[in-house]
UniProtKB/TrEMBL annotation, chain A:
This is Phosphatidylinositol glycan anchor biosynthesis, class U. One of its GO terms (biological process) is GPI anchor biosynthetic process. It is found in: Endoplasmic reticulum membrane. Belongs to the PIGU family. Pathway: Glycolipid biosynthesis; glycosylphosphatidylinositol-anchor biosynthesis. InterPro entries: PIG-U. Residues 1-25 form the signal peptide.
From TrEMBL, chain B:
Pfam families: Gpi16. InterPro entries: PIG-T (IPR007245). It comes from Cyprinus carpio. It comes from the Eukaryota. One of its GO terms (biological process) is attachment of GPI anchor to protein. The gene is LOC109080311. This is Phosphatidylinositol glycan anchor biosynthesis, class T. GO terms for cellular component: GPI-anchor transamidase complex.
Length: 429, 573
């Protein structure tokens, strides 16, 4: 499988190189859908220029990257970060598929599946091309290409999260903890990925998730110690790099309090542009809690399926974070081929894909009409933002429904009958 | 300043001055300079100077007796420990290329800069109270000056009076480009004069004529000065510059008189003034071939001002014969020939916004050095509001299409909703050249309450300040003498070969993208709906389980079963 992956990488690099050299690169790096105040390359250059002038980059309101990112060579790696992400996703999905197939084999041998749901089982033949499809979905996704050509640091964030997933799936708790700390240090939201990673390790080490068992707490504390320890070390290193704690209000305070209302594809900007001052703090808290709040319920429901939980968490972060960009969307969309066996249970996939395609096409049009032509106003762009997020929410909840439904069928049988013997329909009650 | 006239020198005897100061602490001088411009317009500049030999800031000395110096300003100075105060209100923009250099430059709108004493501990608190008190004194909306439009320039605004302070922590500078000047600002300004508007030159200040002009600027400058360097004195200068347009006020006729300009004539000098004079610039009219000046006066004066030696006809209003038989003095200038081209001013600056759309833009500042062979450095100061995000890595300075790197850059980036950008640069201008400074910016979307009631008018960006020591054609006088006319002694001259010039560029008007102001409820409802859709679907999937759907029996059957249950009879299936 190395050859098709290499070919894919070459094609992806060619497309990016072609776009990079053309005049489109400048246009793309200014687009608000692709870059946000948190990860724009222009702001990184501005931060470095301020350092040259002898002014701290955090004294103004232009630079919101973490200090360690000021190390120049880290930024050169943005251009290669897409390749790293793709390879990491490829290897992790490959590992995941092996796990899934092994578990399925044991369950089959112990006769745990009802007789009629054999067609729901997955075969190696069908699963063979999935890792390549995942890498392809990531590399050839227009969102990723745009994000890479714009040199947004979102690519770097995606690479770190992909490496974290790879290390988790390979079973290395130390590396996984360090990479998660790095991802959290860059933008706080990956904090919620702590729960699925922990659940995966517990499952792998055959430790039951029981709050009364000491083995559970022992491992949890170990993993938490690795994570929190690396986070403290990295934060301390940033302090020593610039000599001040200025970066904490400038980066984390900025993410949480949303002072910059530049339009983007998220829900925050227009909401807080039109917010009454009296309620601003309340709604900031509500919206930020909304991102973190699904972790515990989802972890309880999906405690046996930690990889799907990771997908759900990444999707929720991308939709509800304060400054989303299309690069974040591209990361969770890369996972979709891994759940291609759920296709028969998806209810709204056609509608959702039409909505997402139409919105992606309309974003630049309505932006142009508002900002340049002056014939539309901000409401048009806001409406498309709403629709895009609505489409994303439908997509994620649809896959969740399909996954839960397949699990239900695997335990209760595929063809269900009502009490009188006629064909039954399944509802959520 | 010499009188090459048969009348003779009016020499000042030092002992007389000393006695004068002991019995009457302070003096008042007033003057009016009229300079006809090449385009046919006329420039009139009033200056009123009140000197007061006292030290407000001395310990244990409470000042309670005010004579010539206005009490309101004196109390302000002592309460806020102000060392220097400069405030100006301007309506219109000074066109340097058509009118030359003004005596006292000022930017459009209101400008206030203050040097506080170094004993002040909370400069920001003093600044805030000072702006509010001044807005009451001058009936202007100076209370809009707050930390979001105040800067602390590090090099551009050095003290004009005594003292060599270098700590710019005690300096505050703010402009309000949107401020409109009207009669309500002129009236309290006139009240600060010792004679008010009852006697002296101030009777000419009638608002209906003054505000019907191309340019109107009134200013108050307070600074401590060195009185023969034996004692410290406070100097209050009130200046009023006005340019009357040939076509609007002059009805197209190249003939100007005091009555035509101000609709009043002078009847007497201010009795409290130690000197009251009218100067008319006749440098371009040595033989009287350009315009005719009446009434004729034998007094002539020469002064070196703005790097040039100018000749003036002087009218001394303290002498009764100036007013003639009718006891009224009306100056008349009648043009005879066509004036040639004006000498180009040596330093000139322009500024404009480039770009299209509401997302980004570029500020271009163009500085012209019209000296044929001398290069000199200029200090450019830019204060840009926080909602225009400047990108300093896009700053380019080009002269004669080559890169010109500034030797000193002081940049303080803006903090959202707290302070504006401050950019100060020292640029060396090559001779006879045009230097262009460009910097890119991004426009921010503000919260809906932060827009002015007319958001589509745009947001003002204050003028840039270009300060320079321009090489002078004529040697400047470095020591200040008592009998020098006021207009040539405003700016202290440190060296003979150059004079200080400050040029203000145009203020900019920039449009920002606006949200829809009628939508707060709608936006809250719609966004919360989308979040609720997400919450609802996840809640359903998390709390409910899949069950086989047993259809409920029709209504008739259910009712029948209910009745059967009551009767105790077996139910229908």
């Amino acid at each position: 499988m190395a050859a098709p992956l290499t070919l894919l990488l070459i094609v992806a690099v060619t497309i990016r190189a072609v776009l990079f050299r053309s005049s489109w690169a400048e246009l793309i790096s200014e687009r608000v859908e692709v870059v946000s105040p948190l990860n724009a390359w222009k702001r990184v250059v501005e931060g470095l220029a301020l350092l040259d002038l002898g002014v701290s980059p955090y004294s103004g309101d232009v630079f919101h990257e973490v200090s360690l990112s000021l190390i120049h060579f880290l930024f050169k790696s943005i251009l290669g970060s897409d390749g790293i992400t793709a390879v990491a996703l490829y290897l992790s999905i490959q590992t995941y598929n092996k796990n899934v197939f092994r578990k399925q084999k044991y369950a089959l041998e112990s006769d745990r599946y009802p007789a009629d749901c054999l067609e729901l089982l997955r075969s190696p033949k069908e699963m063979f091309y999935i890792p390549l499809k995942v890498a392809m979905f990531y590399l050839l996704n227009p969102f990723t290409i745009l994000s890479c050509v714009a040199k947004s640091t979102c690519g770097l964030n995606n690479a770190i999260i992909a490496l974290f997933i790879l290390c988790t799936l390979k079973g290395s708790a130390l590396l996984s903890g360090i990479l998660l700390a790095l991802a959290t240090y860059q933008s706080i939201y990956p904090l919620t990925l702590f729960a699925p990673a922990l659940l995966f390790f517990l499952q792998r080490l055959y430790i039951p998730v029981n709050l009364r068992r000491s083995s559970f707490w022992f491992f949890t504390l170990q993993y938490a110690f690795i994570y929190v320890g690396s986070l403290v070390v990295i934060t301390g290193l940033s302090f020593f790099l610039l000599g001040s704690w200025d970066f904490i209000p400038s980066v984390y305070g900025f993410i949480f309090s949303v002072p910059d209302l530049t339009p983007n594809i998220g829900l925050f900007w227009y909401f807080f542009a039109e917010m009454f001052e009296h309620f601003r703090l309340f709604f900031i808290c509500v919206f930020q809690i909304n991102v973190f709040f699904y972790t515990i319920p989802l972890s309880i429901k999906l405690k046996e399926h930690p990889v799907f939980l990771i997908f759900m968490q990444i999707a929720i972060i991308s939709i509800f974070k304060s400054y989303p960009t299309v690069g974040d969307v591209a990361l969770y969309m890369a996972f979709l081929p891994a759940w291609s066996h759920l296709y028969r249970f998806l209810r709204n996939i056609f509608l959702v894909s039409c909505v997402l395609l139409a919105c992606s096409a309309l974003f630049p049009v309505l932006w142009h009409l508002w900002i340049y032509a002056g014939s539309a106003n901000s409401n048009f762009y806001y409406a498309i933002t709403l629709l895009f997020n609505f489409g994303q929410i439908l997509l994620v909840s649809d896959y969740f429904y399909a996954y839960l439904r397949r699990e239900h069928h695997l335990t209760h049988g595929l063809y269900l009958k009502k009490k009188d013997g006629t064909e039954a329909t399944l509802v959520l009650k | 300043f010499r009188f090459p006239s048969p009348i003779g020198h009016i020499s000042t005897c030092p002992s007389l001055i000393g006695q004068c100061c002991k019995t009457h602490p302070g003096s008042f001088q007033e003057e009016l300079v009229i300079r006809p411009l090449h385009s046919g317009d006329i420039y009139a500049s009033f200056q009123f100077r009140t000197l007061w030999d006292t030290d407000f800031l001395q310990e244990g000395q409470k000042v309670s007796h005010y004579r010539l110096f206005p009490k309101s300003l004196g109390q302000v100075l002592s309460k806020f420990s102000v060392r220097e105060l400069h405030i100006s209100f301007t309506q219109g923009f000074w066109r340097t290329m058509q009118w030359g250099q003004p005596f006292i430059p000022s930017p459009p709108g209101a400008e206030l800069w203050v040097w506080f004493h170094d004993t002040v501990s909370d400069v920001d608190g003093n600044w805030k109270e000072l702006t509010n008190v001044l807005s009451g004194i001058f009936c202007a909306s100076l209370n809009f000056i707050d930390l979001t439009n105040t800067v602390q320039p590090s090099a551009s605004f050095k003290p004009l009076g005594l003292g060599n302070a270098t700590d710019h922590r005690f300096l505050r500078y703010a402009t309000l480009p949107r401020e409109i000047v009207c009669t309500e600002n002129l009236t309290p300004w006139k009240k600060l004069l010792p004679c008010g508007s009852k006697a002296g030159l101030a009777v000419l200040m009638k608002s209906e004529k003054l505000f019907h002009s191309s340019f109107h600027s009134q200013a108050v400058h307070i600074r401590p000065i060195c009185q023969q360097c034996s004692s410290k004195a406070w100097e209050l200068r009130q200046t009023l510059n006005v340019v009357f347009d040939l076509h609007t006020s002059g009805q197209g006729k190249k003939e100007w008189s005091l009555f035509k300009m101000f609709s009043r004539t002078l009847t007497e000098a201010c009795p409290l003034a130690s000197s009251s004079k009218v100067y008319v610039d006749i440098t371009d009219n040595p033989e009287g071939e350009l315009f005719e000046l009446s009434p004729a006066t034998p007094l002539l004066g020469q002064a070196v001002v703005l790097g040039d030696r100018r000749t003036y006809s002087v009218y001394d209003l303290s002498r009764a014969e100036t007013f003639g038989q009718l006891r009224s003095f009306n100056l008349l200038l009648r043009w005879k020939g066509d004036s040639g081209d004006m000498l180009r001013p040596l330093l000139h600056a322009e500024r404009y916004v480039a770009g299209f759309g509401l997302q980004t833009g570029e500020i271009h500042t163009v500085i012209y050095n019209n000296h044929p062979y001398r290069a000199f450095p200029v200090l450019l100061m830019d204060s840009v509001p926080w909602y225009l995000q400047l990108y300093i890595h896009t700053l380019t300075v080009t002269s004669k299409s080559r890169d010109n790197k500034p030797s000193y850059i002081h940049y303080q980036p803006a903090k959202d909703r707290h302070r504006p950008h401050l950019l100060e640069m020292l640029i060396q201008l090559p001779p006879h050249s045009m230097t262009e400074v460009t910097v890119q910016f991004e426009r921010a979307l503000l919260k809906w309450t932060e827009y002015t009631p007319d958001p589509n008018h745009g947001f003002y960006v204050g003028s840039s300040v270009v300060s320079a020591l321009v090489p002078s054609m004529v040697a400047m006088r470095t020591n200040f003498t008592q009998d020098q006319p006021l207009f040539s002694s405003f700016v202290p001259v440190k060296e003979e070969s150059s004079y200080f010039v400050r040029v203000y560029t145009e203020p900019l008007l920039v449009n920002l993208p606006t949200p829809d102001f009628s939508m707060p409820y709608n936006v809250i409802c719609l966004t919360c709906t989308v979040v609720a859709v997400g919450y609802g679907s996840f809640y359903n999937l998390l709390t409910r389980t899949f069950q086989v759907d047993e259809p409920s029996p029709p209504l008739s059957k259910r009712l029948a079963n209910l009745i059967r249950r009551m009767r105790g009879v077996p139910l229908l299936t």
